Amino acid sequence: MSIFLRPASAVALAVLRSTQSSLNRTQQQASSGLRVAGAKDNAAYWHIATVTRSDTLALSAVRDALGMAAATVNIASTSITNAADLVSQIKSKLVAATEDGVDKVKVNEDIAQLKDQLRSVGEAASFNGDNWVVLDGNDDPNKPKEIPASLIRYSDGTISMGWLTYKGDAPPSGTITPEDAGYLIDDLASGTGGHGVLTSDAFATAVGASQNYVLLASKNGNTAGQVEISLDSTTTQGQVRDMLSVVDAMLGQLTTIGSAFGSMETRVQLQQNFAQDLSDSLTEGVGKLVDADMEEVSTRLAALQTRQQLGLQSLSIANASYDTIRQLFQNIH
Questions:
Q1: 242 vs 210: CA distance, rounded Å
Q2: Positive or negative, the Cα torsion across 170, 175, 181, 187?
Q3: Do the Cβ atoms of 93 and 253 come closer than 8 Å?
């Protein structure tokens, strides 16, 4: 006598297996929150999501870099603003020195204090070891300051970086003009201080001063022939007027640099906002492709668990006949 799997039992078993498979898949979606967790779920969506997540991580690094840049540029901008205020005060002192009977030695004491503060303002404008207003050490005056600003992915799949640049450099050769002074102070040993507004004698040349006046002498540069602006009892009115013209020209260039830094501050802030919005949009786009609808998953999970219980009961009922046959054989002696 042969005992075969009854059709009712076979159907119940097949239904139970199908239910268990759907239940496992739904439980995985519920625990991970993803309906596309791997390439086997949907190869195209998984590929898009993986590439986009990678870009989102890169954008996060860009946002961090922009945060660092924002602090650096803000400090540089603040330094230039304070320096312009100090130079304006020096200008007012020189104007006072043109009056008859003014003690030029006393006026010079005030100017000396302001000049010391100018150097302090410049050298203190450093964030994380990066100073955008003072050239020193191994700085390259011909290399612009750059910060990563964006990640660009092209249609062919290649990527590139977008950069924000502050170009405060002077030409590598030729005569340095006042417009080439893109920094506050130039202490490089390789030049004459011409890259810094306060250390450049190009302003004296431009206004036709009788001497190569500078507000501050470069610490390391070749300062031969330069005269640091100061007053004493022998200073003539003509010399004071020359100093005044030089300082006024320096102040004009400082406002130009300050405007450049102010514009860059605004650009960095705009780029930070854009990078954040872009990252949010990419994350939302990936979610639409691969995230599970948790309300739907929860409802389906409850239904499948119920179906599983019913399937087990159906299989138990279908298998009850086997118990009857077994009992019959047990009664045979």
A1: 7
A2: positive
A3: no
Of the two residues 150 and 33, the one the predictor is more confident about is: 150
Distance CA 153, CA 198 (A): 43
Q: Would you say the C-alpha torsion 175, 181, 185, 188 has a positive or negative sign?
A: negative
Other residues' Cβ atoms within 10 Å of the Cβ of residue 208: 8
Q: b/e for 93-113, b at 16 or more Cβ within 10 A?
A: bbeebeeeeeebeebbeebee
CA 230 – CA 240 distance, rounded (Å) = 9
The 10s digit of each residue's pLDDT in 17-75 is 766 666 566 566 566 566 666 677 678 877 777 777 787 887 788 888 888 888 888 99
pLDDT of residue 322: 55
User: pTM surpassing 0.90?
Assistant: no
Domains observed in the chain: 20-35+292-330 (no CATH), 43-290 (1.20.1330.10)
Query: Any idea how long the chain is?
Result: 333
Residues in contact with 213: Cβ distance below 8 Å, sequence separation at least 6, in sequence order: 201, 203, 204, 226, 227, 228, 229, 242, 243, 246
Longest dimension (CA), the chain: 142
3-state secondary structure of 198: coil
Which tokens go with 312?
Answer: 């087990």
Q: How far apart are CA 251 and CA 247, in angstroms?
A: 6
**Cα–Cα separations (whole angstroms), residue 38 to 22, 34, 57, 290:** 17, 9, 19, 10
Give the whole-angstrom CA distance, residue 246 versus residue 225.
Answer: 16
At residue 142, the pLDDT reads: 74
Q: How confident is the model at residue 87 (pLDDT cuts 50, 70, 90)?
A: very high
Please count the other Cβ atoms lying within 10 Å of the Cβ belonging to residue 295: 8
- Dump the DSSP string for 314-330: HHHHHTHHHHHHHHHHH
